Amino acid sequence: MNRTGLLKALDALVGAPLCRLLGRLPALARQGGSRTELRPASVRRLLLIRPGGMGDMVLLLPALRRLRRHFPSADIRVVCERRNLEVLKLADLDRCALPYDSRPLRFLRELLRAPFDVALDAEQFHHFSAVFALLSRARLRIGFKINPIRNPLYTHLVNYALDGPEAREFLRLLEPLGIPAAAASATGVLADLRLPLPPAVEERLRPLAGAGFAVIHAGASTVYKQWPAENFAAVALRLNQENGLAAVLVGHGGDRRVNRLVVERCAAAGCPAAALEGTLSLVETAALMQRARLFVGTDSGLAHLAAALDVPSVVLFGPSDAGKWGGAGERHAVVRKDLPCAPCFIFGYHKPCRAVACMRTITAAEVWEACRRMLR
Do 158 and 175 meet the contact criterion of CB atoms below 8 Å apart? Predict the structure, then answer.
C-alpha cells in the first residue's frame, strides 16, 4: 500500500470513529457563532485546511487570496501536506503553511497553541480534517455538508456540488463569512509570475533551440489515468514535424521510465527531446512551463499548474470530471471520451476497472488535433 492509500485507510479506521465520538459531545451543540457577529478586524487567527495533492492546492489559491484581502490583518495558516509547500511558495504564501505530515507533533503544538477565530475545512469527504477544525477551537468552523459522520463537528455547513468547478466550490466555503462566492476560476491565478530559469536548465534546453518546445507530462498518479508512452511520442513527433517544437518531458522520479520511452521513440524518429523528471523543483518546473509554447499531459497537478500559469494546454481526462477539474477558457483544451461510465473518480476513489476505456480509446490523432488548435 502506498502512502496515500495508507492515509485513506487510517482515515476510515481511526478518523471515522473519532468523528462519531466527538460528534456526540453535548458541548458541540452549544458552540458556534453567527456571521453577523464577525468583523474583519476581529479575526486575528484563521485556519484553512486542505489535505490532498498539488491540484487541490492550486485550485484553492483563489479562495486563499480572497481571504487575505478580506482579512488583511489576520494570521492565516494553511494545513496542508509537505508536498504542497512549493505551490504555496509560488503564490508567495509559504509563510502560511502548516504541514501536518512532516512533523506531526510540531503541527499539533501549533494547532493547539492558541484558539483560532475561524476554521475552514476544504476537504470534501474524509474525517481527520474535521478533527483538525475542532482542535483549532475556532468559534466558526465551516465545512462541506457531505459526510454525515463529520458534519456535527462544524458550526456552519456549506452545500457541495459534485459537478461544480472545484475552485468555485472552495469559494463557497467563504459565504458564511460574508464573502460572496462570485464566479471564479484558478485558471490564470499565477499568470503574473515572472520566474527565472536556472542556468543549468537553460543549458539543457540550448540543443533543442528552434521554434520552441512543448512541455509534456507523460506520467500519471494512478493506472486509471495513464496513456501509452508511444502515443505521447507520436504527438511529440507531430509537434516537431508541423511546428518545429522539441519535446521536454517533466515529472517526478517515478515518471522516469515512461519519459525515457517517449524520449527513445522521439530520438528514433529524429525528434529532439529531453527528459528532466526528478531534476527540477516545482518552481523551476513552473519557470520552464512559462517558456513553453504548449503543455500536454494527463490530468495531474502539473496540468493544474499549467492552467494556473495560463500556459496553453491540452489535457487528457479519463476517470475525472473535466468540468470540475479542467482549465477554463480558449487556451486550455480537454480531450476525453464521452462514455456512460465516466467520470467515475470521486473523493479520491476510483471504481474498479480493467478496461480503462476512457483513457485507452483516446487516440494520438485526437490529441494532436487539440494541440493544433491551441497553436493556431
Answer: yes
365 Cα distance to chain centroid: 28
The answer to whether the CB of 289 falls within 8 A of the CB of 311 is yes
Q: Give the pLDDT confidence of 286-314 residue by residue, as tens digits.
A: 999 999 999 999 999 999 999 999 999 99
| Per-residue pLDDT, 28 | 65
CB 46 within 8 A of CB 17: no
Spelled out in words, what is the top-level CATH class assigned to the domain 199-374?
Answer: alpha beta
Q: Is residue 283 packed enough to be buried (19+ CB in 10 Å), middle (13-18) or exposed (0-12)? A: middle
Q: How far apart are CA 26 and CA 75, in angstroms?
A: 30
Q: Where are the domains of the chain?
A: 9-177, 199-374
Q: Which residues of 94-109 are buried (b: 16+ CB within 10 A; e: fewer)?
A: eebbbbbeeeeeebee
- Encode pLDDT of 245-259 as tens digits: 999 999 998 999 999
Nearest one of 81, 161, 80 to 121, comparing CA atoms: 80
Rounded to the nearest 10 degrees, the angle between the axes of helix 54-70 and helix 301-309 is: 40
Which comes out higher in pLDDT, residue 163 or 316? 316
The yes/no answer on whether domain 9-177 falls in CATH 3.40.50.2000 is yes
